[in-house]
Amino acid sequence: MNINAILSQKNIIFVLLALISLRFLEKQYLWTILLLLICCLPQREKKFTLNVEWMVLFLSFASYYLIFQTYNGIQIENLISFFLGPLIFYFAGSKLIKKSTGNKEFTFEKVVIILLTGSAIFATLCIVYKLTHMSLYDTQFTQADIFFSMKERYVLNVWNGALFHPTNLNSQYIFVSITALYFIQRVKKVKQKIWFVAMLAFMVWGSLTTASRTNLYIFLVMIIIGYLVNMKISSKKSEIRIKKKTLLKMIGIAFLLMVLALLWNKISQTFLSNTALFNRINSENLSLEHDGRWERMERVYSNLLNYPFGNMPFPHAHNLFLDIARVAGIFPMVFMIIYFFMITSTTIRFLKNKLISQEVRLLGILLFIGMFISFMIEPVLEGRPYIFMMFCFINGMMRSMVTLNHKFQETNLKTSQKSYINNYVIGMGEKK
Q: What is the rounded CA–CA span in Å between residue 392 and residue 394?
């Protein structure tokens, strides 16, 4: 194989994304800087343009970091996590699609597979590392100021042996929750299907081991949304058969869930009675009205005007917008809300663009909705900044695909109009 092809800009970006999703050696800030340097390598085209989405994202994180560093000081990790990182990732995602000479949809799917695989492997290794180093875990937990009831939920970071919060760990499985079923149906080789089934099994195991519910909820929601979106974009008569197959699969999944519900008591007592999730369900009231998230969100929301520049003395609000306001005030929160309105518009255009295949449009909308749900009910920037950066990378790719396809349509329209005018002039000349 040609060494130049192996060391191409695209392949280096893929490797860096793999290292970041694996949290390799916990040096994400270093891999992010390398990502920027690779994307800024000299190109034949000297033209450099930034879209409005990127500019609004810049305003949000510039104002966020400006206020954040006044309270917390300047550190390279924070500079990357809370300012430069999201901007670099959006830029890199946009540039990757623009510079891809082959199938851009294949590139889009490959990026998602890399993020899914790397993140899930890291989370699974952390759980395994805890189980094989229990003496280290007991020592770390004893030294930390954490409620003892949380002990079975924490794991150890495989790279440095530090305690790793269960909420942050399960965010690593977010891509599995959202896209595992998509790829299981999408790939054709049995080995590939087995791989994604294994990723899904690891996600369920991680949820049971760390008593996390969010990924399981998102997984079930994605099944419903995936079917509804697929029904919406599959409008041709030739695709009715595909709809029927999808409907049958949905009925099958619903039937399995009903059987699971009916046999839950027996299954839980036989297989799940010793898991952290089962113990948490039995020991706590986990109904929605007793979920502490809503109380935290309400507390931050009711104090927005009292702390217009952030630095609220409250814990995480478990909501992206409110946590931004809690840390840095109203202005970066408003810019972030505007950014989400803009990327929602881009996602709708992505979904409606028929130059993009039905499968990739479905993947795009699943990623957007799934990650948005996660961001609305879990701490994001302070707990899992690189998950948000990966989201920005996907935003950049989707924006570029929509923009490039729009330009392609405009070019075709101008060409067809010019051809029509030429044919009309020639026809008039022949009549004369």
A: 5
